[in-house]
Amino acid sequence: MPTHVGTTQRARHGEPQPAPFPPGPPDEPVASKRDLTSWWKNFKRGAQKRDDEKGGSAQPGIFGVPLQNSVRYANVAISLQDAEGKSYVYGYVPIVVAKCGVFLKEKATDVEGIFRLSGSEKRIKELREAFNSPDRYGKGLDWTGYTVHDAANILRRYFNQLPEPIIPLDFYERFRDPLRNHQSQAVGPLDGQSPSVGDFDASVTIRIYQNLITELPPLNRQLLLYILDLLAVFASKSDLNKMTTQNLAAIFQPGILSHPNHDMAPPEYRLSQDVLIFLIENQDHFLIGMQGTAADEKTVQEVESGPPTPA
């Protein structure tokens, strides 16, 4: 900010104003006035940027924020019991996913077109603000006044706005390779599939995916297992809700298994959707509690320590 003479004035509403410059001669050039105007705009822009940075550090949201960051301050712990009946923390999922998942399982499994029909844009905006706001991030949300379509839409938007899909880009091709050239053998013939080549063994492919899932980062792994379980519940009642595994895969594939290099490549969409169909249909082989899928001690400590202290 340029050095200037005088004291800071305050506007009627308390907004800081630039200090007055010493009066110039009567024929002061217009350029000086333009300089003052430009400086004042930059002053306000800089102050706003500093305010935004302060607010962003102290009160972050969850939409568009990396999973590894947001789960540290907006999570729901998944608890299981060991053989002796003692409860332990198995992992964590985002609050928005847990709240929407429970609500949808209770109220929407028999609703035709769920995940496909739009909710109220006004109510969806309210839900976004609730789940995006500290310090509860929607944990105490009351669903009164909201519909299952509102919940379904906000859940989809959360996934689609993640900076990286639930299956990280580093794992993108590794998750697609087991079904490459075997799509129709794995999930049945569908439009746009590549021709099948050679034999396909479903049990071997399931074991490959079990190993891949255990290799995922803990938070990604647990979120993937949670959403596969949710989608499998709705697929099991597709006779009522009309949400077949094919329909569910088409809707959720962008937020689960996608790559920016394939944004305009329909054959690549088809392969990724077929992978998701296979994972949903065989979800019982990847249930939460499968060996090697619990959160490790380091992840538990990081999540429970909360967000890093802002510098």
From TrEMBL:
SMART domains: RhoGAP. The keyword Repeat does not apply. Residues 17-28 have a biased composition (Pro residues). PROSITE patterns: RHOGAP (PS50238). It comes from Tothia fuscella. Residues 78-287 form the Rho-GAP domain. Residues 1-35 are annotated as: Disordered. Keywords: GTPase activation. GO terms for molecular function: GTPase activator activity. One of its GO terms (biological process) is signal transduction. This is RhoGAP-domain-containing protein. InterPro entries: Rho_GTPase_activation_prot, RhoGAP, RhoGAP_dom.
